[in-house]
Structure to design on (496 residues):
């Protein structure tokens, strides 16, 4: 089990060949309070980088991309009525979807927690 | 992000105040403006509806038009009835072009020997030369650069302001007066753009920060950014220039026929009168309507509007989440035969067709003070 982070401020928690995906604490802070989350359809087959999800704040809609290719096996249905769960628990209960990872090597370029924290520091400068 | 353009941005007199209040500053209409404070857009919005919010609108254009023929001069470029304005009262109008489109919307107030005009920040570089041009030989335009403009909006606004400026308590909606606030002479109008009761206060630049601080020292007052200003005006069904109004859109299409008096209609002596009078007589081919989407997905500006299962019949011009409504709200233009309240529509939100209904605006009832 390992959590990895993308430069687009997404996280993926890898357990066997299933990855649980969400946006990072940093991303939710930047977005502000969410008013709507559009999750993908279970069974959808996505390529890495495809639009998987849309998260909307009062100001704007933002896309969440598939971190890797694979099939969507589960989505967080609770977010339909409680989108702010993403703000409150971005890296926990505010997860967005689970994907069956088709090619683990696509995640090689992702960062571990320490590297992601370093990346955030660089962005701040 | 955006750092390369920062050096070209103008600052408002309250910039330091905004920073002290923890504002997130963004570029808007050439100014560095607060989009939100730490409370966040939704809380700022709700606070304004429940208590009172303080808005900095100093980026907007303020001008005096001097001279006994000032009303006649302004009427050369607007279809509103300025000559009928009694001293100490104001109204909403717009500058029109020869094609009957809207150059900008504005508020004009009669101060006796002069008119006070407030125009949009994004359009003042166009409006003010037009007003100066129309005034040649009739009136003299004085652009006001040395005053900040703040708005105090919400059900507690009158109690808060009359605590420090007692004369404001009984002012009627759209009336104006000059009064002292802690020893500073201010121009106060009972107006705003949130649908709530409230005031707009024009203050000498050097005194603006102290007065803003004093108002925010009241427990009922919170500073409000542009984010909540937009959701408040959208719920109030009020137009945003550049979104809901532009140089192609006529006042009749926009549902603003009420701003054109009988005298002006009969005279037909304003730019674009041919089209505007024709639309008044025969109806416009498209109309601005309120739209209530089903579900929770916001339909933002640019979203295509369809007849259910059918062709595109219009476009959303303002849309998003209405914090007081508790769900998505929108306005847009549709073909006139789809503009009646309760008409079913579909909105093309990304890959989904979202059912929606034409509704009467405002989405939140106006609570202006009528005296």
């Amino acid at each position: 089990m390992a959590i990895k982070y993308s430069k687009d401020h997404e996280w993926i928690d890898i357990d066997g060949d299933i990855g649980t995906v969400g946006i990072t604490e940093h991303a939710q802070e930047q977005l502000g309070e969410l008013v709507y989350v559009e999750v993908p359809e279970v069974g959808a087959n996505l390529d890495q980088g495809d639009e998987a999800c849309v998260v909307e704040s009062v100001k704007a809609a933002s896309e969440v991309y598939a971190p890797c290719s694979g099939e969507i096996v589960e989505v967080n249905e609770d977010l339909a009525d409680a989108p702010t769960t993403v703000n409150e628990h971005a890296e926990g209960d505010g997860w967005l979807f689970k994907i069956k990872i088709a090619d683990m090597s696509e995640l090689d370029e992702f960062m571990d927690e320490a590297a992601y924290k370093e990346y955030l520091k660089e962005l701040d400068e | 992000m955006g750092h390369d353009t920062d050096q070209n941005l103008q600052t408002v007199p309250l910039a330091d105040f905004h920073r002290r209040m923890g504002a997130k500053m963004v570029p808007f209409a050439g100014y560095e403006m607060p989009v939100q404070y730490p409370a966040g857009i939704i809380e700022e919005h709700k606070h304004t509806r429940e208590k009172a919010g303080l808005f900095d609108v100093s980026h907007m254009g303020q001008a005096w038009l001097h001279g006994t023929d000032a009303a006649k001069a302004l009427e050369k470029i607007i279809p509103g009835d300025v000559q009928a304005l009694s001293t100490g009262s104001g109204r909403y109008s717009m500058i029109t072009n020869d094609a009957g489109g809207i150059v900008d919307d504005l508020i004009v107030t009669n101060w006796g020997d002069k008119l006070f005009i407030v125009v949009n920040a994004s359009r003042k570089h166009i409006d003010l030369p037009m007003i100066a041009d129309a005034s040649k030989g009739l009136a003299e335009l004085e652009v006001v650069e040395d005053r900040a403009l703040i708005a105090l909006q919400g059900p507690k606004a009158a109690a808060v302001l009359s605590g420090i400026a007692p004369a404001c308590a009984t002012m009627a909606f759209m009336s104006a007066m000059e009064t002292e606030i802690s020893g500073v002479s201010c121009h106060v109008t009972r107006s705003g753009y949130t649908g709530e009761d409230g005031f707009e206060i024009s203050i000498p630049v050097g005194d603006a920060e102290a007065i803003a601080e004093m108002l925010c020292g009241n427990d009922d007052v919170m500073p409000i950014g542009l984010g909540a200003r937009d959701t408040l005006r959208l719920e109030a069904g009020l137009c945003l220039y550049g979104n809901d109004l532009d140089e192609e859109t006529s006042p009749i299409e926009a549902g603003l026929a009420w701003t054109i008096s009988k005298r002006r209609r009969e005279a037909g002596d304003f730019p674009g009168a041919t089209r505007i009078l024709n639309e008044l007589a025969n109806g416009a081919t498209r109309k601005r309507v309120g739209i209530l989407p089903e579900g929770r997905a916001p339909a933002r500006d640019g979203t295509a509007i369809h007849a259910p299962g059918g062709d595109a019949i219009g476009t959303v011009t303002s849309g998003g989440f209405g914090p007081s409504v508790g769900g998505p709200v929108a306005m847009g233009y549709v073909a006139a035969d789809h503009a009646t309240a309760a008409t079913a529509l579909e909105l093309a939100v990304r890959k989904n067709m979202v059912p929606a209904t034409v509704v009467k605006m405002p989405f939140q009832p106006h609570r202006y003070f009528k005296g």
